[in-house]
Specification:
Elements lengths: L3 E3 L4 H8 L5 E3 L14 H15 L8 E11 L2 E3 L5 H11 L3 E12 L5 E12 L4 H11 L18 E5 L4 H4 L3 H10 L6
Parallel strand pairs: 1-2, 1-3
Antiparallel strand pairs: 3-4, 3-5, 5-6, 6-7
Keywords: Cytoplasm, Hydrolase, Nucleotide metabolism
Catalytic activity: N(7)-methyl-GTP + H2O = N(7)-methyl-GMP + diphosphate + H(+)
GO cellular component, one term: cytoplasm
Length: about 190
């Protein structure tokens, strides 16, 4: 088996990949993550996932390189990481009682052959009706300022959900493991 490389500095993606019990290393790619004019969100996350993987191909020959990127959309517009308490409060107020769509781009690049598998895995969160006190209490406890949508689904953020829908709940955290296993199997990796 070729060694695995996760093209990410995300602790959340690292924790998810650990669930597969496969040895891997991590390296953070340096790419421009700007949105192109008229680029659809699906195209954006697929392009960025592939660019992250390809950015490390030259420095890691003979590896299977995993790239991933995620955006959240609310009312048809992309929302990013809030970075501050105030921005997170505004995002959660805007999302109260609504659907938040998450699109996670995934790429698996074989840097030996150049073969690259790319996909996008959607996931939808239906938010509860949230009042300002509940939102602020949540933000003080979990501080999800580095998370698209302003919540940590793998933590207390789940308390803000009415329901969820999608083919792979791990895509919500940023690395769709079900689809990744499909890609790894097609490269001859035995999981488990």
């Amino acid at each position: 088996m070729l060694p695995l490389l996760l093209a990410s500095s995300s602790v959340y993606r690292r924790q998810l990949l650990n669930r597969l019990h496969l040895p891997f290393i991590c390296s953070s790619p340096d790419i421009d993550e700007s949105h192109r004019p008229n680029e659809l969100a699906v195209e954006l996350v697929k392009r960025l996932a592939e660019e992250k993987a390809r950015a490390l191909a030259a420095s890691h020959p003979g590896h299977l390189i995993i790239g991933s990127d995620q955006v959240a959309a609310l009312d048809g517009r992309v929302i990013g990481k809030p970075h501050t308490f105030e921005n997170a409060r505004e995002q959660l107020l805007a999302a109260s009682g609504k659907r938040v769509s998450f699109l996670t781009g995934l790429a698996l690049l074989n840097s030996e052959t150049g073969r690259c598998q790319v996909d996008c895995v959607p996931f939808t969160v239906h938010m509860r009706e949230l009042d300002i006190e509940r939102i602020e209490r949540y933000l003080r406890i979990e501080q999800p300022f580095d998370c698209a949508g302003s919540f940590k689904a793998e933590g207390l953020g789940v308390s803000l959900f009415q329901s969820t829908e999608g083919p792979d709940a791990t895509s919500l955290v940023g690395l769709p493991l079900i689809r990744l296993v499909d890609m790894l199997l097609s490269e001859g990796v035995q999981v488990p």
